Amino acid sequence: MTTTTPAAPRALDGIRLGFSGLVRSEWIKLRSVRSTMWCYGLIILLTIGFGLLYSATVSESSDISVETQNSLAVQGMTLSVNFTQLIAAVLGVLVISGEYGTGMIRSTFTAAPGRLSAYFAKALVLAVTTFVVSVVSIAVTALVTAPILSGKGIDAQLGESSVLLPLLGGAVYLTLIAVLAFTFGAIVRNSAGGIASVLGLVLVVPVVLQIFGALTRADWITNLAAFTPSNAGGKIFAYVPDAAQQAQPPAGIVSLNATEGLLVLIAWVVVFGIVGALLTKRRDV
Amino acid sequence: MIEIQNLSKRYGSKLAVDGISATVRPGIVTGFLGPNGAGKSTTMRMIVGLDKPTTGSVLVNGKPYVKHADPLHEVGALLEAKAVHTGRSAYNHLLALAATHHIPKSRVHEVIEMTGLAAVAGKRVGGFSLGMGQRLGIAAALLGDPQTLILDEPVNGLDPEGVLWVRQLTRYLAGQGRTVFLSSHLMSEMAQTADHVIVLGRGRILADAPIADIIAGGTRKLVRVRTPQAQLLVDRISGPDVNVTGLDDGALEITGIGAEQIGDAAAQAGIALHELTPVGASLEEAYLELTQDDVEYRSEAAR
Predict the structure, then answer these.
(1) How confident is the model at residue B192 (pLDDT cuts 50, 70, 90)?
(2) pLDDT given at position A87
(3) CB < 8 Å to B109, chain A
(4) How far apart are CA B66 and CA B213, in angstroms?
(5) Where are the domains of chain A?
């Protein structure tokens, strides 16, 4: 009897579906598949690796301004973001498309038939985990590379907000790209399609716009390119020298500052997040 | 309790489920029979809200499934063998589902033990056999200690021991007053498990009745008999409706007379019976008759 029958009937009276439970569930799901470990492991390795590579190969300098030193240091410490964003994007898509591909999504939506709470729990867990992993890897990179750079005459003012904010911005950027990719995965519901479309938007679209902008000399195309997720988001982890030293963009050309870039990238995430949520709620699975 | 009201589902031009209404009652095992593509799985998916009905509605324990505060405690569903991420272990799969409802870890271990998965719980689901996947699906369905169980083809891929286990389990759960709704292609399996059957063909309900009535509705009842005194028995039971066919292995297949009458007749004549089996396949025949009518009706209508 003991192996073939359940425990006393209605043993679980009083259990409730709730958002905190869904967040825990998504955390268990995230940490219990290998692709997550691979992706975060690669992000950590590449972040520190590119930082070391940069600091080892950058040429020695003397008599350069504090601004330039800070700029070079920030550049080296966030160099990896250009590559790790691809991993964050792939992971963001896989987190949801993997469930559609395997049929897991039906288990997920049977447990949480309202669907949206599961969708947002998933996005939240992805965002927090990606942010923590990114911020820790960038912090480690900064601490490891600062002495090497210092030996080459590049002393970064790690305590200054003009240096700290772009370093933090690198982690924020990776987080937002992962979440943007997640919304693509939710919309496309297919790993290959989701990855292709998000990488297309992040990598290809800005280049295409840049080329056409240059060919046609149409300012509006160049300006449009400034609002793509990677160009706008790139401002979040770029070192900005004092306003006085900044080159003013030519008239008619848009140049976003870090705050504007952040807001534009957030807008991308919100818009696609809403589309993804509506489709998730409405479609049969 | 599942109350299906005028439920339809259209996929493009195909009407998968065509305005069905039925009630699946607690305390008994209700079977859901029908050929492939009849709309069984679609109906079951609509019950738990995975597919949206084109028309109609379903109430589970008095409410639409999505309105329940504790969905896994209301309904446990096995909809496909592998609604599971292949890269995750069985234990983590169940743990993640349990977490949504704050179901304690002890319950996860309980359903793992109950379904015989203890030895493979730590392994990735991608390597599971069909039968193991099925057991995991049943474990997930039982996780929330649900009042209503929906099992789509639960014995699919199970070994004989597993088939027997599912039969005992479903009967036990129904005996506790729960609602048990299971689909199967195996008519003989259904005959041994279900109390009530809903037969679906091309999206419409062909029959909704106690299993005994369905079998009684079949034109041919069959009893398999094995006896060393075959001729003597045939003489005793012969009648206008009775038809006896001898099988190669020495058994007799008798139609037109019930097992009770055959047994009584044998007892009176002092004939030893080695086997007296009302053959479960008669449900299969009743079912084939039902669905065949539907097919014939359809092809005439298409003309």
Answers:
(1) confident
(2) 97
(3) none
(4) 35
(5) 19-282
The 3-state DSSP composition of chain A as helix, strand, coil percent (nearest 5) reads 75, 0, 25
The closest CB to that of A104, out of B84, B116, B176, belongs to B84
Q: Does A34 touch chain B (CB under 8 A)?
A: yes
Give which of A201, A196, A191 is closest to A229, Cα–Cα: A201
> CB–CB of B45 and A284 under 8 A?
yes
In this predicted model, what pLDDT tens digit does every residue of B98-151 receive, in sequence order?
A: 999 999 999 999 999 999 999 999 999 999 998 899 999 999 999 999 999 999
Nearest to A106 among B50, B172, B177 (CB): B50
Residues from chain B that touch A34, judged by Cβ atoms under 8 A, are: 87
> Which among A3, A35, A99 has the least Cβ separation from residue B113?
A3
Residue B198 carries which side chain, given as an amino acid letter? I
What token pair was written down for A76? 């080296």
Residues of A in contact with B69 (CB under 8 A): 16-17
Which stretches within A189-257 are classed as H helix? 191-199, 205-216, 219-226, 229-234
Domain B218-281 has CATH 3.30.70: yes
Domain B2-211 = CATH 3.40.50.300 = yes
